[in-house]
């Protein structure tokens, strides 16, 4: 169901003033793409229903990964690919979080801060696996936001409960499979590895925040293992293509302010509302626009692309997995909003100059929907 209010509406309210908000050129390009999404500025296409004959017009999507309206199909494609790679083993959901003392550095050096988060997380898990003489695997997804759009960098990781030993055989991390590794031990190693890497990359900036980084324990959170391998992919699918805020969380927009829902996890996730001026809302949203070409979903160990190409099928055979063949992707045909049963087929495309003359001349009303 289409949301009544959108991030794009806030951007339109702000207008040209956005250029004076202190954002960089990449952030501005992203915001302009979101503002133009599914409007006449990006052109569009005309579709005809193969059942009732109704003719409708649709405007093109911006396809930007930060756009609230452009993530659904990407998510489904990602889930379909991962389902062919599952193993009949326990999977764990782990979250590695950076402390807020690093937020100021993340604003000015996001690529280094976030790359280092991926590296330190994987090296931490890899070291625990190495102690048990096995190669671990991990899928990690970067999120940078909290519920109030504040900066809160963390990795959502799906980790199989074991690894591949030197003989190429599967080995569980524990016989009971109740947990992967002790989280307190993971937290200490994670902090040490991250700080060592940050010190090597940005020594001056590291020294400025060193005391704050070591002042309190870092958070590594581990949830109970999933009920089945298939539920893993469906669960992670919720996280892979999420953005800082979805349109359905926005409850009102006026000439000055934006009001949106958020969950307050300090009081058991109670739903509350927050109101921000346009500029502050846009500033917070822009904090979560990732650097150009930054890879936010990464695969490691025996789940990396190189390992999967060479050895995954062999491992699945050893574990007696019925391998799902990749299904050829069918062209997406949206349903007709008029009769609800027919498929919409594209009959014409147009650019930002608008629909062709024959459509504007009245063909669009040749078949009307009846309530």
From TrEMBL:
Sequence ranges assigned to domain Transposase zinc-binding in this UniProt record: 18-98
Residue stretches making up the Transposase IS801/IS1294 domain: 137-306
InterPro entries (alphabetical): transpos_IS91, Transposase_32, Zn_Tnp
Gene Ontology BP term (one): DNA transposition
Pfam families: Y2_Tnp, Zn_Tnp_IS91
GO molecular function: DNA binding; transposase activity
Protein name: Transposase zinc-binding domain-containing protein
């Amino acid at each position: 169901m289409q949301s009544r209010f959108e991030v794009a509406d806030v951007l339109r309210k702000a207008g040209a003033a956005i250029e004076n908000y202190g954002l960089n050129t990449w952030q501005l390009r992203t915001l302009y793409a979101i503002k133009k999404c599914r409007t006449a500025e990006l052109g569009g296409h005309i579709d005809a229903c193969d059942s009732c004959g109704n003719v409708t017009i649709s405007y093109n999507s911006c396809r930007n990964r930060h756009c609230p309206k452009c993530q659904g199909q990407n998510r489904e494609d990602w889930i379909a690919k991962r389902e062919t790679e599952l193993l009949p083993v326990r999977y764990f959901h782990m979250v590695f979080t950076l402390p807020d003392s690093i937020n100021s550095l993340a604003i000015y050096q996001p690529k280094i801060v976030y790359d280092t988060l991926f590296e330190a997380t994987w090296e931490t898990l890899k070291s625990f696996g190495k102690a048990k003489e096995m190669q671990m695997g991990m899928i990690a997804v970067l999120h940078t936001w909290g519920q109030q759009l504040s900066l809160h960098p963390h990795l959502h990781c799906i980790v199989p409960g074991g690894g591949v030993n030197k003989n190429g055989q599967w080995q569980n991390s524990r016989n009971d499979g109740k947990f992967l590794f002790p989280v307190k031990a993971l937290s200490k190693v994670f902090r040490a590895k991250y700080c060592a890497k940050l010190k090597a990359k940005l020594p001056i900036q590291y020294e400025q925040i060193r005391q704050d980084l070591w002042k309190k324990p870092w958070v590594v959170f581990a949830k109970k293992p999933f009920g089945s391998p298939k539920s893993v992919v469906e669960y992670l699918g919720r996280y892979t293509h999420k953005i800082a805020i979805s349109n359905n969380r926005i409850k009102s927009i006026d000439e000055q302010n934006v009001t949106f829902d958020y969950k307050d996890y300090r009081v058991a996730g109670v739903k509350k509302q927050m109101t921000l001026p346009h500029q502050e809302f846009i500033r917070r949203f822009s904090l979560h626009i990732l650097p150009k070409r930054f890879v936010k979903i990464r695969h490691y160990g025996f789940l990396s692309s190189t390992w999967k190409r060479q050895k995954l099928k062999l491992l699945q055979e050893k574990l007696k997995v019925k391998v799902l063949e990749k299904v050829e992707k069918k062209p997406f045909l949206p349903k007709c909003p008029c009769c609800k049963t027919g498929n919409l087929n594209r009959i014409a495309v147009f650019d930002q100059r608008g629909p062709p003359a024959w459509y504007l001349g009245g063909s669009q009303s040749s078949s009307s929907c009846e309530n």
